[in-house]
Amino acid sequence: MVYICRVELEEITPKIWREFQFHPDITFHQLHQIIQVVMGWENYHLYEFHVNKTVIGLPDPVFEHMEHHETLNARREIVRRQVCEENTVFTYVYDFGDDWQHKVTLVKIDPSISNPAPLCLEGARSCPQEDVGGIWGHQHMLEILSDPKHPERDEFIDWVREGYDPEYFSREEMNLELQKQTDKLLPKSLNRRPEDKKPVKLTKSVLNKHLKQLSHDQLIELVKDCYGTSNDVKKFLAVKILGNEAVESLFLEYRKKVEQEFFPERGFGKLKLQEAKKAIAEFEKLTGSARYALELRLIYVENGVDFTQSYGDIDERFYHSMVSMYATIIEQVNEDETGELFDEYEERIEAIVPKTEGVGWSLHSNMSELYTLIRWI
């Protein structure tokens, strides 16, 4: 059995729509991933489903008490439990900033199809750009791109994804991508690992035993082979061999990664906050530098505050992220028994608070309260 659904973006004409099929026993998070593929989104932002009066998404336990409604966990909630009749209509909201509202309709329940793999059946027109500014921003961008003499045209051409054509749609490309992700888009009951096959894991004890058996030359060859496997390994070895010089060089690289999510050299900030936070975590893991990791977290919050001062209020989850990162900064300073981090960064930590005054979602009061928790004041 499969569900055949139609998804279309609201308030855009001509319609941007897709028809696709999937197994009804997948979770809503898997349905989110399928919609991302068939529509052509890039999965940068948060989402929610609204089925009748039920909200289904990814609850945040840290800020759960601040939510205005109960949210069912999309990773656990099965589609069939909430949607079980043909012609049921529900809403999929993607990117709470741009607020892309999708109307999803269960067109048909087909018991004759036994293949549970998701499949794109038909559709029309290309998905909007990520972070374009919602419906108004999308329409504004199309007007500029269609006018060869518009003064902003070159800037938008540099910003849009390569080869972007608002009328383009390829079912074959969508299905090729769905095929690549099939294993994670099937119900768990249909995608179990054979019980007789256990995952192989290299433990430290096994590694230590093996390394002791290698000769000096073999160890050198092993390290050289590791060096060529990935950029992360190269960076890790650079830190181990070159020391502070490599750490400082990596800091500049990762600082740019964080800053460009807010204020890139060209175009508008995409606010892929998960990418910025991932960069900070990656840097800290590679270098082990608490000082520079704190610096990157400060840069994250400083840029976030500067961004909202430049463009106005964003959304609740954006500010939650700023508060959460600021809390991590305070905690890291408090854990430093030497007080060196406090001496070096206290002025910058304090300077953030007054800049949040007047910003929505209680950002200023939350930041002010956190600042008073610094142990060295």
UniProtKB/TrEMBL annotation:
Pfam families: DUF6155, PRiA4_ORF3. SUPFAM superfamilies: MM3350-like. Residues 2-172 form the Plasmid pRiA4b Orf3-like domain. This is Plasmid pRiA4b Orf3-like domain-containing protein. InterPro entries: DUF6155, MM3350-like_sf, Plasmid_pRiA4b_Orf3-like. It comes from the Bacteria.
